[in-house]
Amino acid sequence: MAARRTTSRTPSPQQEGPMPPTAWAVLGLLSFPGERTGYELKKWADASLRFFYWSPAISQIYAELRRLEALGYATSRRSGPEEPRTKRSYAITEEGRAALAAWAGGGQDAGPPVLKHPLLLRVWLGHLTAPDQLRALVAEHIARTKGELKEVRDALARAGGAQAWSHPEVALRWSERRLEAEVELAEAMLVDLDALEEAKSPGGAAASALPAPRGPRQRGEDAPTPG
Questions:
Q1: According to the model, what pLDDT value does residue 14 have?
Q2: How far is 126 from 27, CA to CA, in rounded Å?
Q3: Cα separations (Å) of 175 from 47, 50, 181, 195, 217?
Q4: Nearest CA among 215, 175, 224 for reference residue 50
Q5: What pLDDT was estimated at residue 91?
Q6: Please, which pLDDT band fits residue 43 given cuts at 50, 70 and 90?
Q7: Would you place residue 40 in the very low, low, confident or very high pLDDT band (cuts 50, 70, 90)?
Q8: Per residue in 113-142, pLDDT tens?
Q9: What is the rounded CA–CA span in Å between residue 57 and residue 45?
Q10: Alpha carbons 61 and 39: distance in angstroms, whole number
């Protein structure tokens, strides 16, 4: 029996609302040559998207694939009996490609990047952490980032300058530079932490630079923010 491709369904009013960025990202993965299973999409997201956006969970990928099929932006087909294991492969439709092109090239501002840096949150709370433990956390972050940097460079090598992957290659080169900068920033943070501990020690820079007592603390002087 030949593999059968499912036809798109008419979306419900709820499905016609704005799609979340994750749905556009999954549709974007389908916009490159070839058909892919949900598992293959997840592997590719782990090897590309996560370095500059994020990699959705496999359950999210399948949920978005169902949404895209319902909207007519993607189709799927089950593998035939010649396959040792039944698989469902997905492909973008012309309608989906047109919608993706309109979204990707839209005139609206893409918005500012959102930075959520777990290590910096720990450093911000460093007054509650032993100095050696804080340094260990930074060192682990440096090692992990260097590992990610190697993965990005491996992905760039696999791209091999192929025309079909030229824009993903640009994104990966940005990711390479970002990770290189992340390593430098974390190494500089170790220097800052060392200087902080030296300043706290008897006879350190902070001890010699302490201001003279000024009487009762004024309102607003208990935080590094105005008001």
A1: 40
A2: 42
A3: 12, 10, 10, 30, 46
A4: 175
A5: 97
A6: very high
A7: very high
A8: 888 999 999 999 999 999 999 999 999 999
A9: 10
A10: 9
**The 88-92 sheet, strands edge to edge:** 36-37, 88-92, 74-78
Q: Is the dihedral of CA 166, 171, 177, 183 positive or negative?
A: negative
For the chain, the straight-line distance linking the first and the last C-alpha, in angstroms and rounded, comes to 73
Helix (H/G/I), strand (E/B), else coil: 183: helix
pLDDT tens per residue, range 148-166: 999 999 989 988 767 777 8
The conformation of residue 113, written as its DSSP 8-state character, comes to: -
Distance (Å, whole) CA 136 – CA 147: 17
Judge contact between 88 and 78, C-beta under 8 A: yes
Tell me the chain's radius of gyration from C-alpha atoms.
25
What's the token pair of residue 68? 């895209």
Structure tokens at 159: 């791209």
- Calpha distance 31→74 (Å, rounded): 10
| Contact assessment for residue 3 and residue 37, using Cβ atoms and an 8 Å cutoff | no
Other CB atoms within 10 A of residue 18 CB:
7
Task: Give the whole-angstrom CA distance, residue 98 versus residue 202.
Answer: 67
Identify the band that residue 5 occupies on the pLDDT scale cut at 50, 70 and 90: low
Instruction: Find, among 124, 147, 149, the residue nearest to 134 by Cα.
Output: 124
Which pLDDT band, with edges at 50, 70 and 90, does 196 fall under?
A: very high
